[in-house]
Amino acid sequence: MRIGIIGAGQLGQMLSIAAKDLKLECRLIEANDLDALSGLASDCDVVSYEFENVPVEALLAIADQVQVYPPPEALRVAQDRLQEKRLFEDVQIPLPAYRRIDSLSDLQDAISDLGPPVVLKTRRFGYDGKGQVVIRNPADAEPAWEQLGKHPLIAEVWVPFDYEVSVIGARSPDGDIAIWPLTQNEHVDGILRTSRSPVDLPPMVDRASSYIDRLLQHLNYVGVLALELFVAGDDLLANEFAPRVHNSGHWTIEGAETSQFANHLLAISGQALRATTCAGHAGMINLIGTMPAAASDISDPRVSLHDYGKTPRPGRKLGHITVVAKSASERDDLLLNISQTVT
Question: Can you say how many angstroms the Cα of residue 24 is from the centroid of all Cα atoms in its chain?
Answer without folding.
Answer: 24
